[in-house]
Design a protein that fits this description.
Blueprint: E1 22-24, E2 28-32, H1 38-44, H2 48-54, H3 61-77, E3 81-87, E4 93-103, E5 108-115, H4 124-137, E6 144-150, H5 154-162, E7 166-177, E8 180-190
Parallel strand pairs: 5-6
Antiparallel strand pairs: 1-2, 2-3, 3-4, 4-5, 6-8, 7-8
Helix pairs in contact: 1-3
The chain binds coenzyme A.
Length: about 190
């Protein structure tokens, strides 16, 4: 049955080019993941806050490598776009920002992020989110980027607000976490906002 609407993004829009490295000022880069990041990812997932909000543990280097392989192949398969946030000089891992749940026909994606504990509190995550979102709604070709967090995760809400994501409402009891159901606060930026 033919569609009456042309897709917002064509298949191949991402995969036909290499995943870009995006500078965040002079001191930080968003770069594609490398398998050699596995030890730093495993270390990051020892943090209780990352475990709590991402509902996962990494028990071994092999598990961390498997995730990284999935994050890397997401670009070619156009199922996700995942970046390591690193110090531009030392390449030390500072965090992760990602676009997931891509729906190319609607030009839509969901943002995900964490920062390692030592990189928190200085506004790095909102800076990284703003750079990624500017790319996504520009060259990336997306029309709408959604950002969701548990209503119990105040730091994440502050990131959304500081990065200019409008509040669109609460999805009741939408996520199941280790401590039970959470209400989820939805924010979004659309191309017209930028
Ligand atoms: C949410 C998170 C990514 C924020 O990153 P960040 O780079 O610290 O962001 P900011 O520096 O802008 O701080 C955001 C808020 O965190 C809180 N905060 C400040 N210092 C902090 C610290 N040292 N440690 C933890 N939170 C801190 C403050 O409420 C701050 O808001 P404010 O600037 O209005 O006071 C980070 O706390 C994190 O990785 N948390 C665990 C994983 C997670 O929650 N991921 C998101 C799932 S939806």
């Amino acid at each position: 049955m033919p569609s009456l609407v042309a897709p917002a993004m064509s298949v191949g829009h991402l995969a036909e080019s290499d995943q870009p490295t995006l500078p965040v000022g002079d001191d930080v880069l968003l770069r594609p993941w490398l398998l050699t990041d596995a030890a730093a990812v495993r270390e990051a997932f020892q943090d209780p806050a990352i475990q709590r909000w991402h509902v996962r543990r990494a028990d071994s280097l092999d598990e961390a490598r498997e995730w990284i392989e999935g994050w890397r192949s997401g670009w070619r398969e156009e199922t996700g776009a995942h970046w390591a946030v690193v110090d531009a000089e030392s390449d030390t891992l500072l965090g992760r920002v990602a676009l997931k749940s891509l729906v190319l026909t609607d030009g839509k994606a969901e943002l995900a992020y964490w920062m390692v504990p030592s990189a928190r509190g200085g506004g790095l995550c909102p800076r990284a989110v703003m750079v990624l979102t500017r790319w996504a709604l520009g060259k990336g070709g997306f029309h709408r980027i959604e950002l969701e967090h548990s209503t119990a995760n105040r730091p994440s809400c502050r990131v959304a607000i500081k990065a200019g994501f409008e509040e669109e409402g609460i999805r009741r009891r939408a996520w199941l976490h280790a401590d039970g159901w959470h209400d989820v606060h939805l924010h979004a930026r659309i191309r017209q906002d930028s």
